[in-house]
Amino acid sequence: MIKAVYLGPPGTYSHQAALQQFDYSNEVDYIPTSSIPECIRKLETDKSIDYSVIPLENSTNGQVVFSYDLLRDRMVHEQDISRKGSQVIPTLEIVGEQYVSIAHCLIATGPKQVLGNFSKVKIYSHPQVWGQVNSYLQELQSKFPGTTFEKIDSNSTSEAVRHILKCERQTGVIDVAIAGEVAAKLNQCSVIASNINDVKGNTTRFLILQRRNNRQIVSKSLNVSLMTFTTKQDDPGSLVDVLTILKTHGVNMCSINSRPYNRGKQKWQYVFFVEYYYQKEGHNWDAFYKELGDLCSEWCLWGIFPRNANYYA
Ligand SMILES: O=C(O)C(=O)C[C@]1(C(=O)O)C=C[C@@H](O)C=C1
C-alpha cells in the first residue's frame, strides 16, 4: 500500500491536499504527522513512506515559510549531500502540486455562543492562518470592544480544534479555533461563523515530494520545475545574469521568491527560488543547466512536475 504523510491530524487542509493528490483512493495509507518539518523528516528517514505533502504558498498571505526554509536548509546547510560541481543533489524531489480551497470557520466546542458575552476569547490556529483572517478578527474586536482576543499558534488547524476540546473551562473565557468545516465536523464541534477568510477564493498550493529515484517520467504536457540557487553575491548584476539565461533560452519563469540564510559570518545572504515552465521538446536543457551552473554559487533542481489544472481555476 502507498503511504503518504501530511500535516495532521485528520481534517487539516494538508489532509485535503493528500486526498486530492491520490483521488481519495482507499489504496493509500494517509499518515498524519505533527509538524511540517516532521513531514519531510519522515520521508527522508522512513523508507516505508512513499510521499509527503507540504503547503508551499497561500493566495492571500504568500509563502509558507516553514516549507521554503526546509528546502533552503537542505541546499545550504546539509553537509552529507551529493554534489556535482556547483549542483547540490537533494535526496527528495517534487513530483506534483495540489490546490486546496481554504474556507476558514470560527469553531467552538459547545453550542453556538455570542463572543461578546466573554471577557476573553482565546483563538487557536496554525500561524499561516492569521494573515488570512485579519479583517475578520479586526471586525470582531470592533464589534465587541469589551472583549480581549488572544491569538495562539497551533501546529495545524485541525490540531487547534482538538486542543479546544481539551481546554479546561475558565469563567469569562472561551476557547475557539479557526479551521476548515471538515475539522469541526470530525471533532463534533460547532461552527460559530463560516467563510471568515478576508479574501473569498482563498487557495493554498501544496507540493508532493518523494525520495529521489531518478526514474521521473516527464509528461509531454506543461510541466513546472523548481530550482533554488545562490548567486556570487559580490558581482553586480549576478541575479540578473542568472535570470537572463532563462530569457535567452526562451524559458518562461512563473514564480520567484527568496529566503535569507546565514552561513559562516556573513549575514544578508539569500537563496532564490525560481519556478519555470518545462517542456521536454524545443529547448536545449543541458546547455541551460550548464550555463546556470556556471553562474550560481550553488544550485539545486527540485524536480519537474505537471502543472495542475486547478492552477487556472
Ligand atoms: O493547518 C492546516 O490545516 C494546514 O494544512 C497548514 C496550512 C498552511 O501551513 O498553510 C494549510 C493551509 C492553510 O493556509 C492554513 C494552514
Automatic annotation (TrEMBL):
Pfam families registered for this protein in UniProt: PDT
Gene3D superfamilies in alphabetical order: 3.30.70.260, Periplasmic binding protein-like II
GO cellular component: cytoplasm
Keywords of this entry: Amino-acid biosynthesis, Aromatic amino acid biosynthesis, Lyase, Phenylalanine biosynthesis
Recorded GO MF terms: prephenate dehydratase activity
InterPro entries from the UniProt entry: ACT-like_dom_sf (IPR045865), ACT_dom (IPR002912), Chor_mutase/pphenate_deHydtase (IPR008242), Preph_deHydtase (IPR001086)
Keyword Ribonucleoprotein (UniProt): no
GO annotation, biological process: L-phenylalanine biosynthetic process
Enzyme's top EC category: lyase
Residues in Prephenate dehydratase domain copies: 3-211
Residues of the ACT domain: 227-302
Pathway: Amino-acid biosynthesis; L-phenylalanine biosynthesis; phenylpyruvate from prephenate: step 1/1
Keyword presence, Hydrolase: no
Its EC number(s): 4.2.1.51
Designated name of the protein: prephenate dehydratase
Natural source organism: Zygosaccharomyces mellis
Gene: PHA2
